[in-house]
Write a structure and sequence with these properties.
Chain lengths: 215, 79
């Protein structure tokens, strides 16, 4: 099962992401944002960072990178697509997820572990989690405050406290089909107890296990 | 042709930056300040002589890239 981990200029979590997915037995490969063909990949991850410098708005320029045409094609075909942090922002800008991410309520860059609770287990990210399962994940963002005026977003995991003002305390959001998910905290940085938490494993395991069920 | 684009966040969407600046102004004694919104202005130089064609092109740029339709409205000002 091959996963494309997309690298935009300014992406900085791609290696952690590849390492985490590889630990779980998946074949994860870095793909430059100018790639126009993702044939042969079963899933895509847009990792964290500051794609295209986050100029204009986070994700606004990245959504027009050539690779995004393929990401949209795969999302429409039902393949698992995951955006972590900046990747979540890009998926919203691309219209693959509802809503948008604006600066944190308190205008502070948040860099600490937060507790989140899984509220929906029928998505590619939460397929192997238990409803109500709590996990400790590192949050590392300035624009993590999700707003969805349409109120159609499907909240997959909520913050237990309210670190950034996100609507419905949303930490992770899915599209209607559940194959496209964005998450603001970093599961790929919570893979080993030695580094503070291994709670991210169950999420990325859900993602890698979902690859198998895609035709 | 010089074109100015004003991009404003819809009133129902919070503006944490504006709220912080409002608080600072009030701390400075400007108790008359009720609300502050900080928005974005983009200046463009665009080729073309037909104002309506330029307006349409720039509006298209706003819809596709310059503004986020989920949160923001835009206004195109020519000249």
């Amino acid at each position: 099962m091959r996963i494309a981990v997309v690298v935009f200029p300014g992406t900085n979590c791609e290696r952690d992401t590849v390492r985490a997915l590889t630990m779980l037995g998946a074949e994860a490969e870095l793909v430059w944002h100018r790639e126009t063909d993702l044939e042969g990949f079963h899933g895509v991850v847009l990792p964290g960072g500051f794609a295209h410098g986050d100029y204009l708005r986070t994700g606004a320029v990245a959504r027009f990178s050539p690779v995004m045409t393929e990401v949209m094609r795969m999302a429409a075909a039902g393949a698992p697509v995951l955006g972590i942090c900046n990747g979540f922002q890009i998926l919203c800008e691309a219209g693959l997820l509802p809503g948008a991410l604006i600066p944190n309520r308190d205008l502070a860059f948040i860099c600490r572990h937060v507790e989140v609770e899984v509220t929906d287990t029928s998505t590619v990210l939460t397929a192997t989690a238990i409803p109500g399962q709590r996990m400790r994940l590192p949050l590392n963002s300035y624009e993590g405050n999700w707003v969805d005026p349409s109120k159609t977003g499907r909240i997959v995991a909520r913050y237990v406290d309210d670190p950034n003002g996100s609507q419905g305390r949303a930490a992770a959001v899915a599209n209607e089909a559940g194959n496209v998910v964005g998450i603001m905290p970093h599961p790929e940085r919570a893979m080993e107890a030695l580094l503070g938490s291994e709670d991210g494993r169950v999420l990325l395991e859900g993602f890698t296990s979902s690859l198998a069920s895609v035709p | 042709m010089r074109v100015t684009v004003n991009i404003t966040r819809r009133p129902e969407i919070s503006d944490p930056q504006g709220t912080t600046v409002k608080r600072a102004l009030r701390d400075l004694g400007y108790s008359s300040v009720d609300d502050v919104r900080i928005d974005r202005t983009i200046h463009l130089e665009v080729e073309g002589d037909d104002p309506e064609a330029v307006r349409e092109t720039v509006s298209d740029m706003c819809r596709r890239l310059l503004a986020n339709p989920v949160l923001e409205d835009f206004e195109v000002v020519l000249g």
